[in-house]
Amino acid sequence: MPNDYFQFQQFRLEQGACAMKVSTDACLLGAAADLTGATHLLDIGTGTGLLALMAAQRHPTVDIQAIEIDEAAAAQAAANVAASPWANRLRAHALSLADYAATQPAAFSHIICNPPFFRQSLRSPDAARTAARHENASSLSFEALAAFADELLLPEGLLTVLLPPAEMQAFEAVAAQAGLRPATRLVVRHRPGSKPLRHITGFRREADAVQETELTIRAAGDDTLYSADFRALLAGFYLAL
Prior knowledge:
two-stranded antiparallel ribbon, alpha/beta, 12 strands, Rossmann fold, globular, 241 residues, 28% strand
């Protein structure tokens, strides 16, 4: 069973009320997202508040808003934010994306999201976990995410999304309809030579070609050790690597 908390170097995340616990996926997204020029950032589907807090640690001045549709998770995210060193520039909202859009927020320089992506796989009996993991009409659809980004990203803004490769291909098609195209792609593999597990892709309105890089989680020849690239990326967050 996962712990009810996860301790990072500079903050602690309570997660007992959240359907989705701290994961390697989310930590990679939070550490790898390009925050260059960030001024006003939105974390969509914040869960524990992890991505918002990682962004706050990485960027000393960015204003961060975080939204979460699950009320219990949103309350826990708000508590995690309040207990962090960056509470003065973070705010967690218990709102769906549609309800948040209706508040007419200011445009964002950056949007970050680890959206639900299990479209056809077996549903969990835990309704909250299902909503967090599965794309459906009652949670966050690819179409809603792309439409929101199109409406509320600044002209030079960046949308960063983490998905498995097949789902990312589907999202890229949806994003293209909203005028957003992939500019960067980090291909994540478990070990060198294994199939890609996740893509972390940055979308912009103007993108001529995709700049692609790779990262392996585990070291070549020793599945018990993290790779040098993984350790370097998470060095400011994990207590031990």
